[in-house]
Amino acid sequence: MRRWWQRVKVWLSNQYALHGIVVDLEQQLADARKELAERDAVVDDLRQQLHLARLDADRADALRVDALRRVDDRTRLVGEFNGRLSAIHDLVPRMPADVAAQVRAYTRPEETR
Hints:
Layout: H1 2-91, H2 97-107
């Protein structure tokens, strides 16, 4: 009977030890899952930041293209204005003296007015 009892005690002792190991492994698994969830949250945050950075880059590119278009428009308008101003200056010699003086006064650079 003693021998049987000894075997039962060893078996119970082994079961208790295995239970401790299982509990420890379950705790390690829970910790690993928690760490994985935290890393997933960081990855999601970084993906969102990357997405926003790409949107900002797209907006900046669109603004750059718009600015270049505006510079081209301004250059074209300045060219048209200079052409018209030259045409007016070409007509000045044929104008009456008082009108020619007014044209010269209004068409010279701002610094000399």
